[in-house]
Amino acid sequence: MEMTETINMGNSASWRGHRYIGLACRLFIGGVFVGACLFKIKDPEAFALAIATYDILPTSLINLTAVILPWLELSSGLLIIIGIKVRASALLISGMMIMFMIALAVALTRGIDMSCGCFASQEAGDQISVMTMFRDVFFLLPALYVLVFDTHPIGVCSLRRAKTDG
Amino acid sequence: MKHLLAALILITFSLSAYASDFNGACACKKLSDVDKKIAAEILKSRHPYDCCDMTLAECMGADNRCRLAVRLTNMVCAMVDKGKDKQAIVSALEKRAMTMTPSFEKIDVDDSTAMVVGEADAPVFLTAYLCVRCPYCAKLTPNLYKEITEGSLKGKVRLSVKLFPIKGHEGSTESGIAAMAAVKQSKGFPFLLHAYEHFDEFGVDKLSAWAAAVGMNMETYNNLYNDPATRKALVDSKKEGLKNKVKATPTLFLNGRRYLAPMDIDTVKDVLEEEYERKMGLIMER
Amino acid sequence: MRGLTKKQGHKHAVILILRDAFIIIAVSAAAACVVNFFRSDSLPWIAARDYEVLVPCPEPMGEATAVDIGDFDGIGIRDLLIDARGRADYDNWHRPDSIHIAFDYLEPLSDEAVGRIALTKAQRIIVAGDGGDPDSGEQLAREIAGKGIKNVYFIVGGMAALKNSGQ
User: Fold this and answer.
1) What span, in angstroms and rounded, lies between the C-alpha atoms of C53 and B50?
2) pTM higher than 0.90 for the full model?
3) Which residues contact residue C53 at a Cβ distance below 8 angstroms, ignoring those fewer than 6 apart?
């Protein structure tokens, strides 16, 4: 039984429309995360180089982050899409988005110009700007929506429950 | 007992043969066993471009090892130690060979707008096209300057820096004009090194303070900064770079030949030492 | 569950969400570690040395095609001719079918200029400059190509070559 997803969070959260809006948000943000992690899983060294470019983590933590983070993105992305542990996945996705935004803000504040082609990392070669920050906010909002409002998500678990109840 | 003795002799012989690949190459001694294996594989397949006709491994095993073989072996081991793969190392060796091969391509450099350091009669002449806002230049140039003024390259190398502002760098024009104004007050290098030391604090509004910090006459600096002739001198410096087929910064030319080998300070220093030995007729020395 | 008060329900839900999140992290980390252990290009858990993040900085240029005036088929109705020479040369003489975008060796091409070129929807962008060494036409053509605009050509010998050819 998915207890986290059956507890009534109040009148506003119990509106059934949240399930459908939540589903759209989940498909969107899950798709983004699954899509984003594939190249990182395929080439962890390139991702490690991208992390190193931001110059935030100590060298000793870079490889560990480069190995684990993409798999966390993949599992939370897949789980949120298929509807298992939806709110926990939304929490993880929100956490990761906030972490990415902090890294971005630090790079912008330091004036690290990643668009000039001076960095070995291909990923870091993407131009970063305040617009990138807005894009990340755009990705964070659906994850937060699912976390707060999608208390009865449509998906594998709800289908299983319906079958059991039926 | 006989078998044990034979086995011991065999093991000792194998180990000494393995070690002879790296004999005299300091960078190889600190490698792990796995890395030593990778380095040995490369050394067994590559030949030095001068001084010895055998493979690097065979050259290193010979009684009279030539200096170039030791240098190249050290370079291979240093790159293995940095985690570079075989393909990258072989490519770096080939590019180093191309750098050292005499070329008909001659570059045209106007020294009147250059920052020059090193003794006038130094046998090796290095030309560097740099951008004041290039992070890689900020890393390489101070080390190079230190080696030429007080390190092992003193008296061997003369460095001439030409400005090549990169359009993708914010503030490259303004900082380039300020550096050109510094050149005109014979403060080119102090300004450039100050700009690289404070690279992360850059702002166009900081340029005057940096000029003052290196002891420039501020009235003259301001006049030069606003003088269209200073901008034109910067444009001419960049045009000269483009004419010499400069496409990125830093770009180095070694006695007029394009430098293609890896750009880390250790390799640059090693290549400059090699060029010095070549100029002094020491390249065949054992 | 119905016996729980609203506040208790919230607390319980948060605890369960956190527990699930922790399980997902643990399982993902374990999977990541196992896969990394078995792959041929596995990363060491701790980097032995600092990553070399910097590379030499390139001038932001793309690829433009050189056109020899002898092989040039003329400016067509769907082509855009750009005069890259300085203002004085342009004012002195220019072709009426050209637009003027003077090449600046220091400042990047403005977004407005790129937009102006893109809006013409020309089939070919043909740039002619001063024909010198370096040639401002070639440099501008490469800079335009570097901004993502396709089918960019430059006339070898510049505007003078184009004028002399009578095309």
Assistant:
1) 33
2) no
3) A49, A52, A53, A55, A119, A120, A121, A124
Of C49, C57, C108, the CB nearest to B248: C57
Identify which of C48, C59, C107 has the shortest CB distance to residue B247. Answer: C59
For A119, other C-beta atoms within 10 Å of its C-beta total 24
Tokens 């020899």, located at residue: C68
pLDDT digits over C7-32, tens only?
777 788 889 999 999 999 999 999 99
Give the phi and the psi of residue A18 in degrees, each rounded to 5.
Answer: -60, -30
Q: B231, C106: Cβ pair inside 8 Å?
A: yes
Residue B126 and residue B158 in contact, taking contact as beta carbons nearer than 8 Å: yes
pLDDT in tens, C77-98: 899 999 999 999 999 999 999 9
Confidence at residue C111, expressed as pLDDT on a 0 to 100 scale = 92
Q: Which residues pair with B157 in a beta bridge?
A: B124
Tell me if B124 sits within 8 A of B268, measured CB to CB.
no
pLDDT at residue B254, rounded to an integer: 94
How far apart CA A154 and CA A124 sit, in angstroms, is: 37
User: Shortest CA distance to B215 belongs to which of B192, B173, B195, B185?
Assistant: B185
Strands of B157-163's sheet in order across: B115-117, B157-163, B124-130, B251-254, B257-258
> For residue B169, is it left (φ>0), alpha (ψ between -120 and 50) or beta?
beta
Question: Largest Cα–Cα distance of chain B, in whole Å?
Answer: 90
C12 contacts on A by Cβ (under 8 Å): 3, 7
Instruction: With beta carbons under 8 A apart, name residues in chain C contacting A64.
Output: 45-46
Eight-state DSSP code of residue A16: T
> Residue A105 is inside which H or E element, if any?
helix A86-110
The pLDDT of residue A12 is 55
- CB contact C7 to B (< 8 Å): no
Structure tokens at A26: 């989940």
Dihedral sign for Cα atoms in the order A54, A58, A61, A63? positive
Model ipTM value: 0.83
B264 touching C (Cβ < 8 Å): yes
Q: Find the closest chain C residue to A115 by CA distance.
A: C60
